[in-house]
Amino acid sequence: MSLESFASWLDETPFSESIKASGVIIPLAQSLHILCVAFVFSGAVLLVARDFGRWGTTAPLSGWATPLIARQRLALVLLVLTGSVLIVAEPTREMVNRVLQVKVALVVIAGVVSARLARRQLAGEHARGLAITALGLWVGIIAAGRWIAYAAS
Length: 153
Prior knowledge:
Blueprint: H1 3-11, H2 14-22, H3 25-51, H4 61-89, H5 91-94, H6 98-122, H7 128-147
Helix pairs in contact: 3-4, 3-7, 4-6, 6-7
């Protein structure tokens, strides 16, 4: 089964139809998705600033970073869930969109890079290359998220 035929099948499922018919699910999912992106991005900025000695250097990293990282993980789960709802709502437009495919790949890479960064920072190591990479990936994710609506499939 091709991606296009799967998207067509998914578009006709009761779940997809109910999301589209709801009138509130899509705006709520979009809003939560954007808030989670903002939270994860701002947390990444804080971790990068810490690695460069620009923020949070007077407090022990474990005192604020451990709860932040736990909340970022929750936000990533919510990003996947809300993103999935948005894809199911319009699978024939979203699933074949190359920009969405790039965004999903960037999210996976950013998750791996961010996990490595958190482990290194909590171990007391500087990881400036990883920090800048993570921040750049999140900027790419944000840009791709906006570009999806305007890109041809």
